[in-house]
Amino acid sequence: MKPVYAAVAVHVPAPPERVFALITDWPRHREWMFMTTARRAGEHAVEAYTGMWPFGFLDTMTITRWDPPALVVMDHTGRVVRGRGAIRVRPHDCGSRVVWAEELRLPFGPLGRALWPLARPLVHALARHSLRRLGALLRRTG
C-alpha cells in the first residue's frame, strides 16, 4: 500500500547541538513528546510507547542514519507504526529549525487509508505541540 507523508517544522530557541541532544535523549521524551515514553533497546534500536496503558501502542524503531547534531533517521518496525521517520535540526534565527517528517505505511489496510484524511490534522497538531514543548523545555533549562 502507498505510504502517507506527514511533516511539521518549528523554530526552537536553542543551538542545534542542544536541540539534537535532547531529541535523542530517549528517556526524556516523556518530558516533551505527547503521551510517549521511550528507551534505547540496543545499539541502534529505540522503543517508544505512546498512550496510556492499556490503551496505546509500542513503536519499535531502528536507527538507520545518525548525523549529530543535524539528522536522525529511523525505520519504524512495529505492528502499528511502520515506515520511516526523520528529525532534522538546522541553525536558524539565533536558534534551530526542527523538521519532523514521517513516511508511514498505515495500519488496518483500506480502513487506515480511508481514515487518514481525518487523522492527518491530528497527527500534525500533536507533532507540532510536542516540538513546541521541546522548545519550552530547552528555554527552561537554559
TrEMBL record:
InterPro entries: Polyketide_cyclase/dehydratase (IPR019587), START-like_dom_sf (IPR023393). Pfam families: Polyketide_cyc2. Transmembrane segments: none annotated. This is SRPBCC family protein. The lineage of its organism: Bacteria, Bacillati, Actinomycetota, Actinomycetes, Streptosporangiales.
